[in-house]
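Why this split exists: single-chain examples teach little about how molecules sit against one another. For that reason, every record in the complexes split bundles all components of an assembly together and asks for one structure covering all of them. Below is a record exactly as it appears in the raw files.
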Amino acid sequence: MTTFSDSDPRVADERNTTEGKVFTVQGNDWDELLHDLSSTPAQDRIIVNMGPQHPSTHGVLRLILELDGETVTEARCGIGYLHTGIEKNMEFRNWTQGVTFVTRMDYLSPFFNETAYCLGVEKLLGVTDQIPERANVIRVMMMELNRISSHLVCLATGGMELGALTAMTFGFRERELVLDVFEMITGLRMNHAYIRPGGLAQDLPEGAEQKVRELLKMLPGRLKDTADLLVDNAIWKGRTVGVGTLDLAGCMALGITGPILRSTGLPHDLRKSQPYCGYENYEFDVPVQTSADAYGRFLIRIAEMGESMKIVEQCLDRLKPGPVMIEDKKIAWPAQLSHGADGTGNSFEHIRQIMGTSMEALIHHFKLVTEGFKVPAGQAYTAVESPRGELGVHLVSDGGTRPYRVHFRDPSFTNLQATAAMCEGGQIADVVAAVASIDPVMGGVDR
Amino acid sequence: MNGDTSGYGGLVVKSEPIAAADRPFGGAFDSIADAIEAALPNHAQAIKGIVIDRDQMTIQVKREHLVEVAQALRDDAALRFEMCLGVSGVHFPEQVGAELHAHYPLLSITHNRRVFLEVTAPDADPVIPSLISVYPTNDWHERETYDFFGIIFSGHPHLTRIQMPDDWMGHPQRKDYPLGGIPVEFKGAQIDPPDQRRSYNK
């Protein structure tokens, strides 16, 4: 382990007071920086700390901008303000409980986090082929609805950051329609923990398909309204065309995926190239643009929402009655959830059956819920195409009932590295447009 | 009353690490291995073994040869792994002499396939060469792995903490770093913080 010496300026000073030990956290290397600055000849160089609490930084992102007048000469990101130690926490919970953690990482695309994680656990278990068809169809449907709601937030917050407040109200209003569907199906608007290793937490409730169909009728018109506000809007184009450009070589070097990569003209989409959850059975296009700028990414997101609606429609047609959880009772979570007066919980009939009629079922339930299932030792990497790019999960098992190590390769984290390449040399106002077009979600960046 | 129902865990079966495979690997893996042998003259020294597990190919590389292996994987036309998806650290305290593992997923968009590199380093000398010169995307990923595991990526231009505060002590995702936490109070019962529960200590 690396230890810091007493003379290290990064170590906080400590002193004893009547209230206990008090640490004084210093400004780290700012003193050195100021010293260096004062020793160089005088010039109009300003360093601005933008964020982490700033309405235009798309979350708790701190941008450290070095300015020469209005021009950004150096842009750096400070992250970590939303680090919650999810990866460490998961090592102390069983494999199924992990879903409840990962859904909170990138909070705008919870179904992608859950699916990526569950695909990894299923790969480690070697049960990928045993996932019921209906579970896969519902997974795809939820993910594509989630892609729409996530892109809507991107448009809404991106619009707000550039002063297009109507885009924000429209975006959040439409997103709420999608979240209503999520709430009906999973019980929650966000942080669903609905997709579980082996399948789903529960089947669609009665009337859910009807509700999704109604949504599909309403959304195209609403999305068109939102798009019409911006697509040919002279101010919007003035703020985004040619702003935040990053070419294909830059994307490759920086590991950029998702709409930013597709805005350079490369139609790379894991749903097409390495399909999972049965994506090979759906017909959809991968929208691309060649402008490699913020406006191109905006157009791609608009087009992707249309493609997602096409996929959701095909999902509804493919929904056949059947199980939504793997048949193997050693993995399937023994829950039959239902709504009661006090919220969602196990249904009384299910509890009555296992408590009253079957000792074995009770033991099995107890073991599976308190201890969880064992996952054979080894490691696996699985990836899904999240709204922001490749969401990868590296899972390591030591053969126990808890993950030995979980690592999420979140696309927001990687894509945010492009900030410097997109912003340096541009105007300070364009930083906001560029960061909005990256669409980082700090929950995913910091985990 | 202690409400800890986390169980005793009972019989623990620890499995051995999955052994390196021999040829034929099956599928496209043989052609990848052929291409690596053609592109890397000193592959016998650089590569410790190839593990085929769950349809994934993991190449175990000696740390001093990591950069040249990655360079060959990226630049050779038959390999062309143009994208690196970061690095993930793992800490195995019981693997003496190779406690720290770094796992690099690589993706070839050209050939639409994946391969994984795995490098180990001992706790006593936790140094692995940085891959920034080959894959600049690993800048933040290596900082994160340094932050959480204490792996020092030599050659990284500014290896500083990225998630934890700059003055944080220790590397939180190592296995010898406790999870921490406080007991959970219920009416009439108290449950220990996760890392002190029965099932973690038996």
